Amino acid sequence: MKYIFSLCFFFISLSSIPSCTGGNTSQSVSAQDKTELLTIQRFDKDLYEYLQSKSAEAKDKLKAKYPDFLKAFGAVTINDSDSDNPEYFQTLEQYFSNPMLSQIYKDALNKFTDIEPYEKQLSEANGLILQYFPGKALPTLSMHVSGFKSNTIVLDNMISISIDKYLGKDYNGYQQFFEEHQLNQMQPEMIVRDYLKAWIIGEIPTNNKKKDLLSEMIYQGKILYALQQLLPGWNKEDLIGYTSSQLEWVDNNEKKIWKATVGKNNLFSTDHMVIKKYMDEAPYTATISTDSPGQLGVWIGWHIVKNYAENSNKDLTSILKENDSKTILKLSKYNP
Fold it and tell me: Structure pTM?
């Protein structure tokens, strides 16, 4: 089984963790009718019950209900994926006994007592998935508390969100750990976006060729374009994680951004640091302007893919499968 852990949506595969099942993160349509309200499993509550009682009954309940997820969760939080090891649960108890983390856990549970609004939005998005991706649907969805260590944990058959990363930008516990540009992404409503984002990433074929800036732009642009189709009521700034003023800046400076990127010969650069400056969440995009928001490469890629979709008349799955970034750029006719 492949486990994928995300910090600010940087995905890595931990192939050293034993495999349990095959397949991808989609359920079959027959397993989940589009009219059915999705429900989110509350691993966070079940684990908290164990941490409070430390009873054998609560431990057995966890092991029976979450056999695979416990391995991935342990790898993220305590660097131990062997949930059958007697020391595994002892280490979990020690980890969550930290007073600050204990308070964060309580705050997260109190914040997300009613999750039906998120379930409704995800159910609507799942109906669109069934239309755009015939034969596929969202997998089991869950929630956990990681202690600020991961936004998402993705298994072959489950996506779990770390709800302590979505307590609102003004949450007191965030101030000493996160910067302003990160806090904008930590609003409760972003949970729906990030569940879907994790699922979409599993649907985009990876290109094993040496990556350049353009290919990274197109890859991230595909993710945002797909999100836009699954969340049609969302505004652009929330999809990418900008403020309204940041979105206004990029809209007003689109031509300058593109001209500078091409003029500096960065578009086909394979320099890791150049790519990072364009793609990473940051206070600004250093290669363009200190007045700019971060992730300008993501924003450009999104616009290229949108233009490509409009000009090619291809369906969403075909757009995501197209791996030739130069072909996408050419057919997009992107030239702001």
Answer: 0.89
Provide the pLDDT for residue 244: 94
φ, ψ dihedrals at 41, nearest 5°: -65, 145
Of 64, 68, 76, the residue nearest 19 (C-alpha) = 68
Distance from C-alpha of 265 to C-alpha of 3, rounded to nearest angstrom: 36
Which stretches does DSSP call E strand in the chain? 4-7, 10-13, 40-42, 140-144, 152-155, 158-162
Give the domain ranges of the chain: 4-203, 213-332
CA distances from 86 to 92, 106, 206, 269 (A): 11, 26, 38, 50
Half-sphere exposure of 241 (CA within 13 A, CB side): 29
* Contacts with 47 (C-beta within 8 Å, 6 or more apart), sequence order: 62, 92, 144, 145
- Residue 91: predicted pLDDT: 97
Question: CA–CA separation, 167 vs 183, rounded Å?
Answer: 10
